[in-house]
Design brief:
mainly alpha, Hypothetical protein af1432, 3-stranded mixed β-sheet
């Protein structure tokens, strides 16, 4: 009955994205940062299918909803959250992909976790994509922790084997040792060289 009463504009919305937006607004430290984070990581996935970009967008909205968990277990809390959350419009493999990307958001490796058997639902390439997404979110979240505005942009050229970070004055101050370590980790996953330049 509710669906029949909805205007077409509401019916056309993606139930997964709407649920993730709601979770971000309710539980994230900086509601709205997910959209900025999606714009930050998107250049790494320009050739992805729309179905994959949808999952990337969902992960960005959910990247900070488990921040209250203890830091030593936050990666597990993220995976557990997404695999048990009441989210529609997801296949089991897509749920595991999201969980793995969020795990990599807080941890550099998925080894020694209780979730490894579930990874059989994903191809080797999907596991790699989840790792790249998680590490990119980890870097982006570090560049703007308390604001949705940033002057930091990623560019990736597979042909040139180069990962570029273009950064403005405000974000240049935030580009400390932790950010550089996270940038290097992302570049290693992409098997790319790093280039940092001012905007």
């Amino acid at each position: 009955m509710l669906y029949e009463k909805m205007p077409q504009m509401l019916r056309d919305r993606d139930p997964l994205i709407e649920a993730c937006r709601f979770a971000e607004a309710k539980d994230a430290r900086v509601p709205g940062a997910g959209k900025a984070l999606f714009n930050f990581v998107r250049p790494l996935f320009l050739n992805s299918k729309e179905s994959q970009k949808r999952l990337i967008q969902a992960a960005c909205y959910l990247h900070d909803v488990s921040w209250r968990a203890h830091p030593d277990y936050r990666h597990e809390a993220c995976f557990d959250y997404i695999t048990r959350a009441n989210l529609g419009g997801l296949k089991h493999s897509e749920r595991v992909f999201l969980g793995l990307a969020l795990l990599f958001r807080y941890k550099n490796s998925h080894s020694r976790t209780s979730f490894d058997p579930l990874l059989r639902l994903l191809s080797a390439q999907k596991i790699k994509d989840a790792e790249i997404l998680g590490k990119a979110m980890r870097l982006g979240a570090n560049l703007w922790v308390t604001s949705t505005k940033s002057e930091a942009f990623l560019k990736y050229s597979k042909k040139k084997n180069e990962l570029s970070l273009k950064i403005g004055n405000l974000d240049r101050k935030r580009l400390g040792e932790v950010s550089l370590v996270r940038l290097k980790s992302l570049a290693n996953s992409l098997e790319a060289e790093i280039a940092i330049s001012d905007i």
